[in-house]
Amino acid sequence: MRTGALLPSSVGTSSRDLVTWARRAEDLGFDSLGVRGRIVHDSLEPLVALSLVAASTRRIELFLHLPAPSLARPRILARQIAGLERASRGRLTVAVGGSVDDTWIFTGRDGCTHCVTVVHVRGSEGPELDAVRYDLDDFVRAGADDVLLSPASGDLRALERLADLRNLAVV
C-alpha cells in the first residue's frame, strides 16, 4: 500500500506555503499528495492547488478527489483535468467518491478500480496514534491501493509527523 498526504489547501494556506509543503512531502518520501475537489471558504481552488504542486515537484503522484463530480460542468472539468494531467507529466489520478465498481464493469472497462482512502490524523501520540495504526492495518487487509493521511494542520511539523506514521503503513 502506498501512502500520501492531503494538501493543506484550506484555512488560509498561501500558495507559497502550499509549494513549500509539497516539496517537503516529496523530500520525505511520500508517494502522493491529494486534494479534495470541493471549495470551502478561504481555500485555494483544488485544481489551482494541484497545478502549483505539479509545477513545483518532480515525482510525487497527484490525487484529485471528486466527491460529487455530477455537480461540476463535465466538459469544463474534463478539459481542466486533461490540462493538469499534461502539466503534471502523467502524475494525476482522479478519485471519484462513492461505489464505482459496478459502473466500471457495466461500461466494459478492463481491470479493476483503484482504491484510495483517507485517514484523518488528529494527533501523533498515545491513543490517537494507536487508532491510526489500527486504521492503516485495516486498510492494508482490505486491499487499499493508496491511503492519504489528512493532517490536523498545515504546519510542516504536522507533515513530518505524518511521515513517521507513513512508515507504519509499509507492507
Report on the structure:
By secondary structure, this protein is α/β, with parallel strands linked by helices. The protein has one domain (2-169): TIM Barrel (Alpha-Beta Barrel). The chain has six helices and six strands, in the order E-H-E-H-E-H-E-H-E-H-E-H. A six-stranded parallel sheet has the order 4-3-2-1-6-5. Strand 2 (32-36), helix 2 and strand 3 (61-66) form a beta-alpha-beta unit. Helix 1 (15-27) packs across helix 2 (46-56) and helix 2 (46-56) packs parallel to helix 3 (74-87). The longest helix has 17 residues, at 126-142. The protein is globular, with a radius of gyration of 16 Å. The termini are close together. The mean pLDDT is 78.
Q: Give the count of structural domains.
A: 1
H/E element string?
EHEHEHEHEHEH
The CATH homologous superfamily name equals: Luciferase-like domain
- By helix and strand content, what is the structural category? alpha/beta
CATH topology: TIM Barrel
Q: In percent, how helical is the residue content? A: 40-55%
Please, what is the average pLDDT? Answer: 78
Number of strands: 6
Shape label: globular
Largest beta sheet, briefly? Answer: 6 strands, parallel
User: Gap between N and C termini, in Å?
Assistant: 6 Å
CATH architecture: Alpha-Beta Barrel
- Per DSSP, the total helix count is 6
Topology at a glance:
Layout: E1 2-6, H1 15-27, E2 32-36, H2 46-56, E3 61-66, H3 74-87, E4 92-96, H4 101-106, E5 116-120, H5 126-142, E6 146-150, H6 156-166
Helix pairs in contact: 1-2, 2-3
